[in-house]
Amino acid sequence: MIDDKVKVKCPKCSMMFRERAQNLRNGFQTNCRHCNRLITFDTSSEDRNIRRALLSAREVRIAIEAARAKLRGNAAP
Ligand SMILES: [Zn+2]
Hints:
Order of helices and strands: EEEEH
Number of helices: 1
Strand order of the largest sheet: 1-2
Number of domains: 1
Shape: elongated
Helix content: 25-40%
Structural class: alpha+beta
Strand content: 15-25%
Radius of gyration: 15 Å
Bound molecules: zinc ion
């Protein structure tokens, strides 16, 4: 089973938390689990941690999609 969580580093408090790759898309907003700051995930963000998180999330989604396609392929008659 693929881990569908992506690590995110808060730009304010620098603490790490995990967010689901399915949610983590351009324009997605969430609050830091530690300092409660609202974080906006934007591919044009100045913060490289934000851009990296978006990139990681996309890779995870591709991996999940590939794994699902493989499962479907194996299940086919
Ligand atoms: Zn924080």
